[in-house]
Each structure stands twice: as C-alpha cells, then as structure tokens.
Design brief:
By secondary structure, the chain is an all-alpha fold. It has one domain: set domain protein methyltransferase, domain 2 (Alpha-Beta Complex), CATH 3.90.1420. The protein is built from eight helices and no strands. The two termini are 26 Å apart.
C-alpha cells in the first residue's frame, strides 16, 4: 500500500504520494465491518472521478475525518520522535555560525535536510490540529 520505501512523501503544500496516503487512511480508519466488505470486494471498484482528481493539499488534510486526522497526527509525532534532536536544536545549530562551520560539508547538508523535514512535519501538525 505504501510502496517499497514504506513512507509517504510530503511537500510544503500537499502530499506527493497522495494516492498511497489516501488509501492507507481509508483502510486504517475503517470499522471492522467496512474492512470485511472492502476485502470481499477486493478493494474499491472505482473511486469517483472527483475523488480521483482531488489532491491531498494541506487544506484537504485539515478537513479529514477526526479518526484519520488523529491517526495521521500521531504518525507525524512518532516520526518526529525518531529524530535525535528537535526542531529548535537544529535551528540553533544553523544559527550558530561557529558551530555550523565546524561541521563537515556532508554534516551541514544533512542538517539542512533534517531541518527541512522537521519543518514540514511541524507544519503538518499545525494543519491537523
């Protein structure tokens, strides 16, 4: 359902792996009865064209049903916990020129990537509240 990497790809304004996230949220938020029906039908026959063409923008994520919002919110929190340092610590390191320059070029690049990932995740938490 999620693909080989086992992760969803988030951008600043929308989910980039929207089909995978949409299906995962639908399945994970189903009641037992809905899931049984889903399995019996081998998934959904055809989603409506409107649903097929919709994007999972941040605005759309804010309108998810409460169980799906909570599931996604909790997932984001778990992802943030998997990082060694919090967003503030990364920002402090980026702002401390002396400490930043002591990092190797590779460590600097990794810091920028981690910081960007954490900012996107924090933004998503705000959208889901």
């Amino acid at each position: 359902m999620v693909g080989e990497e086992g992760a969803f790809v988030l951008g600043w304004d929308e989910v980039l792996t929207e089909e995978e996230l949409s299906v995962a949220l639908k399945v994970l938020c189903m009641s037992e009865e809905e899931f049984k029906e889903y399995k019996e039908q081998d998934g959904w026959e055809e989603d409506s064209e409107e649903e097929e063409n919709s994007t999972l923008s941040n605005e759309a994520l804010s309108r998810l049903k409460p169980p799906c919002k909570k599931l996604l919110y909790d997932s984001v929190l778990l992802t943030l916990e998997s990082y060694g340092a919090d967003l503030k610590a990364e920002q402090d390191l980026l702002n401390n020129k002396e400490a930043y320059e002591k990092l190797s070029r590779r460590e600097q690049q990794a810091l920028h990537v981690r910081y960007g990932q954490k900012r996107i995740l924090h933004q998503l938490l705000e959208v889901l509240q």
